[in-house]
Amino acid sequence: MEFAFASLLTAANPSDRGMRFLFGGGAEWIMASAAWSAGILTAPAGHNANGFDLADLLAKARGLWSVKASASASSGQIRLTNFMGDGSNAVWEDATLFVAPYFGGAVLVAPQTHHEVHAKVRKTGDALVLSGAVVREFRDNNPANFIPFEVAVNSGVRAGDPFAFIKSVLAPEHFPNLSKPFLASAPITISNRVQEIERLVALRDQGVLDEAQFKQAVDQVIAAK
Hints:
The chain is of the alpha+beta class. Helices cover 40% and strands 13% of the residues. The protein has 9 helices and 7 strands, in the order H-H-H-E-E-E-E-H-E-E-H-E-H-H-H-H. It is elongated, with a radius of gyration of 24 Å. The two termini are 42 Å apart. The mean pLDDT is 87.
């Protein structure tokens, strides 16, 4: 669990607004996978079923709880549900797993049962929100609803290649033209110049690089220190 959330933070750092949905979806799958491993969640046709639809499994997990995950070091207002208009019909009724570093793990709250928490939900201009302090207090008073584990903290520094996702979509073997900016900007990482030149030859032969681009790339390899 701990390593999984650390890996998720590296792969989909929520400091990038475009990655926040990926982070949230990844957190859902981590908790669903943990529930599966613990025997809490089973396949639609039973735990020994093979070839089931993963979408059905995730839907079944969502039937157990919603997941609200954060990698922030400190708590604030947690958005439970968004709404449009005046929010008169907005409700929080799904059991929710709150996962965050400032909770020290995961806290399960069922609003239809835990009325003391539900009573502290507030309505803002576009969402129902709950203070992280309320969830912490609930955690302290209800240890049976708390699973302690270390949740990775977002330091704000994104590790890895921030363009890895779009590079994986515009792979050279499928998009020889659209991938050219990524190929041209890539630094030389292979110390063996012969291997790098062989790689460039293959790209030229595949039509990814034209002759002028190939010659320029080879000159860069030769001139690199």
